[in-house]
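Supplementary Note 2. Why include the ligand at all?

Several targets in our set were suspected to adopt different conformations when bound, so apo predictions alone were not considered sufficient. For every target with a known small-molecule partner we therefore ran a joint prediction. The input for magnesium ion is given below.
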Amino acid sequence: MITGEDMEALGYKYFTEGQALTLNDYQAKASATAIYPESAKITYAAMGLANEAGEVLGKVKKIIRDGTFSREDILDELGDVLWYAAALARDLNSELSEVAQRNLDKLASRKERGVIGGSGDKR
Ligand SMILES: [Mg+2]
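The joint prediction is reproduced in token form.
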């Protein structure tokens, strides 16, 4: 098990009471700033998620244009992606940990069945 001390030794600096920030803790804290009309539930967060994913690409694109990129800029945009993912999960009455576990279960199943490569959402 990785402890808060391990994380600190590795240079990670975001903790909740000595432990690494969990996905659900993050979601709860981010939820305090997820303020949009009830009528825009799901759609607002889904659109924001797509927009922020594009912003990640915009930062990565600078590798082509400038031959370099800012790790910090990409991480900031990735955080925005996470914020919208947390909001969308909330709008779907789910916790981020459920989203993460479902994804891991899906990938493990694909690997076990030898279909980790290829395409198709339901393989
Ligand atoms: Mg952004």
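Residues 1-32 form one domain. The radius of gyration is 17 Å. Comparable summaries for the other entries are listed in the accompanying table.
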